[in-house]
Each structure stands twice: as C-alpha cells, then as structure tokens.
What we know:
Layout: H1 2-12, H2 15-24, H3 41-52, H4 54-66, H5 75-87, E1 91-94, E2 100-104, E3 116-122, E4 136-138, E5 141-143, H6 151-166, E6 174-180, H7 190-199, E7 203-209, E8 216-221, E9 223-232, E10 236-237, H8 247-259, E11 269-278, E12 284-285, E13 288-297, H9 300-324, E14 334-343, E15 346-347, H10 353-365, E16 370-374, H11 379-383, E17 388-391, E18 396-398, E19 406-408, H12 412-427
Parallel strand pairs: 3-6, 3-7, 7-17, 8-16
Antiparallel strand pairs: 1-2, 2-6, 4-5, 5-19, 8-15, 9-13, 9-14, 10-12, 11-13, 18-19
Helix pairs in contact: 3-6, 3-12, 4-6, 5-6, 8-9, 10-12
Bound molecules: zinc ion.
Zinc ion (ZN) binds at residues 122, 149-150, 183, 210-211.
Amino acid sequence: xxxxxxxxxxxxxxxxxxxxxxxxxxxxxxxxxxxxxxxxxxxxxxxxxxxxxxxxxxxxxxxxxxxxxxxxxxxxxxxxxxxxxxxxxxxxxxxxxxxxxxxxxxxxxxxxxxxxxxxxxxxxxxxxxxxxxxxxxxxxxxxxxxxxxxxxxxxxxxxxxxxxxxxxxxxxxxxxxxxxxxxxxxxxxxxxxxxxxxxxxxxxxxxxxxxxxxxxxxxxxxxxxxxxxxxxxxxxxxxxxxxxxxxxxxxxxxxxxxxxxxxxxxxxxxxxxxxxxxxxxxxxxxxxxxxxxxxxxxxxxxxxxxxxxxxxxxxxxxxxxxxxxxxxxxxxxxxxxxxxxxxxxxxxxxxxxxxxxxxxxxxxxxxxxxxxxxxxxxxxxxxxxxxxxxxxxxxxxxxxxxxxxxxxxxxxxxxxxxxxxxxxxxxxxxxxxxx
Length: 435
Ligand SMILES: [Zn+2]
C-alpha cells in the first residue's frame, strides 16, 4: 500500500521539482534525480561517442563472444576485457577469484576511502568447453552461443568506459567497471559474492548489465535453489543381474513423483529438471544416476516446501524401487540430495537514488520500462542491503542459453545511453573545477 502510494507520487512529480530537490541537497554530489544530466555538454559528448561507435561496439561484442568462457574457465575472456578496459584509461586488476575490476576514480576520493558505484557484466556463459562460439551473421542478426547473454553486457561495459574517457568525464563518486565470473548455473554468483564481500561497505550502488532488452528493470531478486540428487547401487549385468535394484529406475520413479508436485501461480514458483545422467552402457545395471533441479519462487516458504518435496520424492522413488526389486539379495540403493547453489532474495527500496537515476535516464531517452523480479548478479548486493538493479544493455536478443542464441543490435544505442545515464545519475559528475 505504502509502496503503491510512493509510486503514484513519483509518477506525478513534475520534472522540475525533482531537479530543485536535488539542488537543495547541495553539498552532497547528488544529481541522481536530475533529468537534465543528459543535457550536460560532457555527458552529451559521451552519448554522442556511443552513437558514433556502434559498429566497433558490435565488433567488440562478436570478438568477446568468440572467446569461450565456460563456467569456471573465464580467464582468457577476462584478460581480453582487462585489455579493453585499460584502453579506456582505467587502472584494472583481476582479483583472486577472476573478476576484472577497472576503476575510474571519483573527485571525492580521499586516500582510498571513497564510496563506489559499480557497473558490472558477467563474463561466463552456460556453454561447456568445446562449444563452437564462432559468430555467424544472418541479415541484421549475430548468431552464436552467448552472443546476447552476456556478449551484450560485456560490450556495453567496455563501451561506457570508452565513452566516459572520450568525453573526459570525471565522476564525483568512483566508478568500478566489473566483469565478473560465475554468474551462470553452478557458478552460483560466486564472482559477485566475492566482489561484494571485498567491497561491501564502500558500495553505494550496483548496476548489472545482463542481456539485451531495455523494457524492464530488475529491482527484485528472485530466490532460487539448485539441487542434485544422486542414487547409487552395486550395478551389474543387464541379463544375469536382472532384478537388482536400479538407480536409474529409482531416480525416474522419484522424478515422476516430484514433477507432480503442485506449485502455486502466486507467489510464482517454478521447477525444472535440467540435467539427468547415469549408467555406462545399455546392457549394464547402472551403479549411479544423477539429476539436477532448479527451483525458484517469489516466496522463501514455497522454495523450502519444494526443496522438501524433492528430497521426499527421491527417498520415495528409492523406496519404490527397492520394494519392487525382484532380487533384493543383490544389494541396496543409497541416495543423497545436495544443495548445489542457493541465491538469496531481496528487493530494492523504492526511494533508492538508483530508481530515480534509471527513471530519469528512461525519461531522457523516451524509454518505458517495467520493474521485474529475476535471478541475476543483483541478488547478491540486494540481499546484502546494497542498492542494485539489473538491466539489459540494448538491442534485441533471443534463444539465450541455446546454441541458436542471436542478437540484433538495431537500436542498441538506447540501451547503451540508458546504462551510461543511470551510472552517472548515481555517481554524479565532478564539479567543473577540478578539486
Ligand atoms: Zn546472463
């Protein structure tokens, strides 16, 4: 109720009153609410740079996409991003977990004690080593696994850094450009977790660039769990050991129970058996079978309920298989259900300067966007109480996480400008006179 009221106030607040409010807080570098940011000559120059360099931004995206970055193997792509950020004049390092961190010092830096605003994009893809990452062109489209998720984010990360350099912009608050590891799947947000652990108290806001579309802004973190169920047994010969309890049978029996679990439409709750493996040959009773399940919910309670349902279903599947085994003298089955990953939930406060900055950017560009709940790198700062959003970086993409993934850069400049304006909206600009 209170939130609905606040939103209504923001929507009806005239642009000028928002600006004068920002001016009243004069000592703080707080042009966050200032919709005139886009009219500042230096900012204009940065926006113009983006507009005039779209072809090279597309090229960078294709080049980075072609450097494979499977989970836990992002190092080569990280080096390439490091070089690109260095060419934008940043001082860049790679931290111990593999995140690339480039700093553009703010005017208010005092002996390294400054706050920081973060623009980030994840380096990793879901695709295993050996996947063909060559980028194909089909009309306006670029086609390659990872081209949009997160080639678009990485290209935009570099482009914004270059645009700030070209326009000689010094922010009030230090900006950290971060290309982080381990966002996808079993990476389990490890890059962002390590980064937020290191910088926690300094972080004023985090803007995550993920994928392409600019019709949304993720302000709510979707909680999720990833689990792996493993069933093991003695294994044997398909003919001579017939009747022995079979781990694949047990897993299938358990899976059928699990997928019949009812989930509510609201709070939205989902599950997916994403991987299943086991056995060694068609004529062997397998000694092991595994499956991986992703569960997500707007409610922590539902998440817990569904996790319990999986554990109970697998236990029941094993029980069913043992009960129907024709020859129990040939061994037993054991099983375990392990948590592979857990992403915490969280929400951005509606009066965050980050919301104002994004809305001002949308207004300046004539873009409209709705708020969304999703599972992204922004989960980590949001769960830690740090302001964070995730946005697409412009253009259009589809087929994410498939080999047919595509990206169409038409109109991408709007997404690039939106990222830049939102970033500067929260970082602020250094005063005209250098301090
Ligand atoms: Zn992504």
